[in-house]
Amino acid sequence: MGSYAGLGEVGGKRILVRSDLNVPLDGDRITDDGRIRASVPTIRALADAGARVVVTAHLGRPKGEPETRYSLAPVAKRLGELLGRDVAFATDTVGESAQAVVGGLTDGQVALLENVRFNAGETSKDDAERGAFADRLAALADGFVSDGFGVVHRKQASVYDVAQRLPHAMGGLVAAEIDVLRRLTETPERPYAVVLGGSKVSDKLGVIDNLLGKADKLLIGGGMVFTFLKAAGHEVGKSLLEEDQLDTVRSYQQRAQELGVEIVLPTDIVVADSFGDEASARVVAADAIPADTLGLDIGPESGAAFAAALADARTVFWNGPMGVFEQPAFAEGTRAVADALTRVPGLSVVGGGDSAAAVRALGFAEDRFGHISTGGGASLEYLEGKPLPGIDVLLDEGA
Question: Is 213 labeled as catalytic in the residue annotation?
């Protein structure tokens, strides 16, 4: 591949690639390298075309200054293993090390810059401060490829401002993500089912609001389900509950009824006396949760019912686990949904974040799903109908 859309011939050019390498670490050990693997094809394609590839990314949430625990050094090592070639590592982002490492690259070589969020300018709300940092990043390159889908909803220097300063192109990963999201929002094959879990209703309000008019079925699990159960008048014990969202949930249920959208709630719940107490785990009816317990997963009857509800779907979007999947006693609801998605004959989309981590943790092969998103927050904001600054800047011909 000699050229990359929007950049022309890339051979011999320094190409800055914004990847999403924000992986979970246990010390120096990467516990889930899914995002690194997803970033490899674009980096490899550019290197194979003779580009001098300069990768920039963040890890965690440092406060604008270096923190050893958020160093990308372990990521550089893993990226090199996956690429099958050495990856030079700069110990800063735009300083002496970065300039020396980038200056030393030859055609087809790859470098990774240290955590871009070690610089306050990356996430600054001040356009001038962010722009000054973007100037220094842009000075390291001749072109820019945006391939970090997990950050395109952020107006940050390495995502947004750099694209205004360099010839730019959309990377393969971002292009694939946007294509899938358009299919989910503009031309879904029906029946279209949306499965939402995770801890809070408030995190998913915009998605529910926007998809009520598009989906045929809405399946609710995870911690957010208890606000739905409470809104229906049921006892939820010590389960996670957002009292301030009860009226909103009732309004959604009313709208769904008017629109003919089926909302599927669990009929049984796995409860325990306290969070993480697997020994006391037991199954109770969803409308009979004991006051001194808390719900930590949907029950087996519900898992089967959710699977049945997805059996005839041609399009499924899933975001958020059904329970505390990290613990075996509370993982079966999430497993049931994941397994049901592998059987969808049309498009099955795992919407990033904890859902993507769950399918890998539970041992499902990624190729059994139509698409596993690398960006939970970005996916949700797109599905809410919000603009994504990191995408808009790529499509703006004046940029």
Answer: no
